[in-house]
Please model this.
Amino acid sequence: MLEEFNLRQFLSAFVVLFAVIDAPGSIPVILKLKRGGKQIHAERAAILSLIMFLGFFYVGEAFLNLFKLDISSFAVAGSLIIFIMALEMILDIDIFHERPDMPKDATFIPIVFPLFAGAGALTTLLSIRAQFSDINIITAIVANIIVIYCVVKMAKKLNGILGNGVIYMMQKFFGIILLAISVKLFTANITILLENLK
Model:
């Protein structure tokens, strides 16, 4: 398997996943959740993200088929969650209201899923399987997991360095980016679903 490693393929897979995961763009979301009293653990976020990516890489399609779902349905559902999160960031509103029984740990939801290992990243992962060898994709996943860990771990430090004003502007900017990603995911996949209904 190691002899199949190709630096060009690794870099290509890494860049594609890095762009879709957009870990640095998640800093405003992480800080917003932490200001709201939520706990986000860097180590757990990295491990859970790795499990999600590797699990979906090997059994993703089979898992969805088990529930008679396709990737397009999965992507549409994920796009709606990302859309709501983007609205919260842009409009400074809280759509996901706190309840007394809600967990304080926000590591898995919404940070790992749908932010890092969301529908866009997971469907992208399946689509690049046809382009690159498994070893190159797996190493690209691991490299992105390291980025995720660093971003979550250093989010507060980056806030201190950049300042509240810059972080606020970043929140608005990346909120619009998230909104655009959600719209693109939704329109691309709802079209496929509607065509399948004909």
